[in-house]
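Q: what does this look like with zinc ion bound?
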Amino acid sequence: MSEELTAWPYQEAREILEHLDRIDSEKGDKPVLFETGFGPSGLPHIGTFSEVARTAWVQRAFSKLSDRPTRLVAFSDDMDGLRKVPQNMPNPDMLAKHLGKPLCDIPDPYGEEESFSGYMNAKLRSFLDSFEFDYEFVSSQEQYRSGVFNKGLLRILECYDEVRNVIIPTLRNPNRDEWSPFFAVCENCGKVNNTRVTDVHPEDGTLSYVCDQSFRGADACGHESTVAVTDGNVKVGWKVDWAMRWYVLGVDYEMYGKDLIDSAELSSEIVKILGGEPPAGMFYEHFLDENGAKISKSKGTGLTIDEWLQYGTLESLAWYIYRKRGKAKRLFFETIPRSTDQYLEALTKFGRSEDETEKLDSPVQFIEADRIDAGEDVSYQCEISYSMILNLVNVLNTDDREIVWDYLRRYDESVDNDARILNDLIDRALRYYRDFVLPTKEFELPDEEVMVGVRQLREFLASYQGNDPEQLQSATYQAGKDNGIKLGKWFKSMYRMLLGQDQGPRLGTFIHLYGVSETLALIDERIAQAESGELDG
Ligand SMILES: [Zn+2]
């Protein structure tokens, strides 16, 4: 069966199996390690969420193909130096004084945690916890300072020239011959970005440095010293750091953004020099904002996770992230309803499927992993789309969830079976309507040509006894056609009159949902509003 699983997380999982074959499973019973990295120079964002989510999906796929135990580690680079003062953060003057220090040694600008990175790490954890990811948090500074990385640091010192020979040809810096993978944390001023290695002493595991590099206008203190490379006295530059982490922790899988493809290749070369094996992994495209620019954590542009969750469900966001992983995607509000409806369709298909392979291969398998594992029913049975709810809220012009429920029950008596999902959708539809639709509504009464058709439809509705969406659709269509109105114009005019917008749902479905007599009353209300001058037209 496993060869029939073609969803991308399985393809990744097979790469891991090959990787494990390559390293000859020397790890024995050691769990297969999935790593995801976080840079705590800013708050976690949609890119952080998607990297962890995608890695967790690959981990799940792996567990379907293999019995080996797995671990997911979220690794925070909190030994990195602060390179610039982030925008939109309190106490920028204080932060400016600490430029170049490891993030873990800088006070928290928010005054809540013991350090800058302590604050970001806490945010990361509560962020990941809120999505119920099953992960272990690992801090870089703890690995360095507790000695976990000592083995790797000493190994880099042993292979010093080989490691330098990988990186130096890629540098444009005129001082590149002086370049060292090591950066000492100055014992005098505490900065890591201002020091320069002057000599290494592999025989006793030490190096000498001088703190003389001006960094972003900040003067260096001039301190000179010789220190052990172990126990957090020095850190290594990040491409080497990445390789060392793979080597020491034995990382088997890690994905990374497209901009890091070259770096990943260099880190792979380095981990081999150290005596390790690069993990399996893939690159992904970054999300773009509405202008096509990469969403940046320091500038805070683009749609945020919080914003998405205001107007769309978590599952719809996960669906958006799951699909087309290799393509750059723009994130803006219009993507939310479409993504939500596509996900509802996937849920319905999943619920109806009897084929175990098809179910394992479905995105739903990954997005609803926790519910599926808990034996919960994740199907979505009714045929009510998020767009329909948005349209209904639109025409009901309400902020009352119960009123929407009344209408949905009229449409389909079994909707209560899907109450969990529908409640989620209704709440978000009410917000979406209030924040985006309401401010842009422009009702308009049709011109006289179209009004002839409206009157015909009105007469039909006044005498119609049933409530069949197909009959209602054909009567609506007929009212336009009988009166020689171009259909594009006819439907657009109807939408502008009823909904205040140029597009809308299939009118038969809409009337069925909203109610025949209610639609009749709405048409009369619009005509009355036009006559009293409330409506442009
Ligand atoms: Zn210094």
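The pocket of zinc ion is lined by residues 186, 188-189, 191, 194, 211, 220-221, 223 (CB under 6 Å). The two ends are 63 Å apart (CA to CA).
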